[in-house]
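A protein record in our archive is deliberately plain, so that people and models can read it alike. The tokens are whole numbers drawn from a learned vocabulary of local backbone shapes. For reference, a complete record is included directly beneath this paragraph.
>
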Amino acid sequence: MAYAAYSERWGSSLRGIAPRRRPVFVVMDITVPSRDACPVRRALAHGSGAGILRCVPLPHDRLVRLEVHLPLGQEAAVMQCVIGCVPCGQIGPVRTWDEHLTHHGLAHGH
């Protein structure tokens, strides 16, 4: 049987450690033809640092709106990825995470 005893003051082990900063994320709306939604999703999943939050089909227009979650500063890389995948599409507004939640009727992400 092992026995361990130690004495430690609360917080003493945290001295000298810098607090971690929360990464800042934004949400970008991208609208593409329905037939091109799958290649765009696959391309974004491979290495762009972005993730698909929602896929909203717009069947009357034969379009799909993708809500893409990405780190701040990666907007150009995501746009380049989309432009390389599809011949046409629309890149909508870039919102902060809090603006995105407010847009969907939620108060805060905190």
Observations:
- The chain has a mean pLDDT of 80.
- The CA atoms of residues 48 and 78 lie 6 Å apart.
- The chain has one domain: 25-104.
- The first strand starts at residue 25 and ends at 33.
